Amino acid sequence: MIIDAEDAREAAEFRAKELEPAAQPWTTMAACYDDMSVDHAAKVLSRDANISTGRNRLFASMAGAGWIYRSGERKQWHAYQTQIDNCRLTHKLSSPFLSHRTGELEAPAPTIRVTMKDLSILHRLLGSTDDLADLIDSDEAAAA
């Protein structure tokens, strides 16, 4: 009994090590380390008394600046490659979902994420007066 359990544990560990290289690219592509959602970025920016924005208005501002565009059947937002290359925006992959309309699995558009570099640029473009670091610190304190 104990030997069987030990063998099963070793087999599971071996299998996990086999799968690790295949899982690493997905882990990297789906990770969100130094970026935040557009919704969160809008909330941080709105802490500045001279900036009034929300998720949708921030998307509109980024589109107006030529950083993002709508594409596809669902008119999802996408970042221009130049904005990804210069580290203003990132794309986060999402898991496929079951479409209620077609009954099939569909791959969603990537989620646009705002980097800290982009947050500081947006802060200036939207008419900042406060220090961005103070806004981020107060946002983190409010979340704690």
Structure characterization notes:
The protein has 144 residues and is an alpha+beta fold. The chain has one domain (34-143). The protein is built from six helices and seven strands; from the N terminus they run αβααββαββββαα. The chain has helices spanning 2-30, 38-45, 55-64, 81-85, 116-125, 132-143; strands spanning 35-37, 68-71, 76-79, 89-92, 97-98, 105-106, 111-115. The strands form three sheets. The chain has a three-stranded antiparallel beta sheet with strand order 1-7-4. Strands 2-3 form a two-stranded antiparallel ribbon. A hairpin with a 6-residue loop joins strand 5 and strand 6 (105-106). Helix 2 packs across helix 3. The longest helix has 29 residues, at 2-30. The radius of gyration is 21 Å and the shape is elongated. Mean pLDDT is 79; it is low at 26-32.
Number of helices: 6
Low-confidence spans: pLDDT under 50, at least 5 residues? 26-32
Would you count the extended β strands for me?
7
Give the end-to-end Cα distance, rounded to a whole number of Å. Answer: 47 Å
Beta-strand percentage?
15-25%
The helix content, as a percent range, equals 40-55%
Number of domains: 1
InterPro entries: Ant_C
GO molecular function, one term: DNA binding
Protein name: Antirepressor protein C-terminal domain-containing protein
Pfam families: ANT (PF03374)
